[in-house]
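Please, does this match?
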Amino acid sequence: MSMQIPVIVVGALGKMGREVVKAVQHAPDTQLYAAVDRHHIGEDVGEVLGVGALEVPLSGSLQEVCVAAAQEKQPVVMVDFTHPQAVYENVRMAIAYGVYPVVGTTGLSHDQIADLAEFADKAEMGAVIAPNFSIGMVLLQEAAIRASQYFDHVEIIELHHNQKADAPSGTAVQTAQRLAELGKPFNPAQVEETEHLAGARGAHASGNIRIHSVRLPGLIAHQEVIFGSAGQVYTLRHDTSDRQCYMPGVLLAIRKVIHLKRLIYGLEKLL
């Protein structure tokens, strides 16, 4: 192998997976080691994606790929943007074989993340789980933390395509968690509320912050953090128009994870 970082892309034919394949192939310091998906097994992933032959056949078995990766003389990274029901076992398998996971799939429970962190600690393996790999979203969260010093009322609206399996989004949950970590009591009650339709006021997240989820075709990934006080509303919004915006963050995580000895949650911890 060269000095390039070998990368396994799981869910290589998915919306995010195909962008990761192209980003890894074009970056000077990464190399596509394997592509895993349930479809087009044995076919060249580049030809299936229409980007030209990459001489990497699609595999249907992550375990077989991890077994081969365990024999390499340099660290191998797995990037996973698959379904929430699959990613937990994928990460455990990767760590068990000495492959460094980078995960963008949301929907993992708090207990699952804690279990994976413990598993990574015992193996002294780096792992990165990030609800969002967009640098712009990290900056939005930082701006929200700053704004929270001056506003007591805040709600979150997240909008995604209607093929997203989990709600609310991991990014919205993480945003609420980061605000709640400040220890400030948000949204003190003004009246006794009554919901005439269950869920009308959204979901209660950390810090007594409400999250509202929208799922519609035509959307990709969008989030608003809305602060309110007497006489003013302050809105922070991030819009995704192309999934390429996540690739700088993914590549950053690939480069960083092989130097870690534990699981890191959140892209902001790598910046």
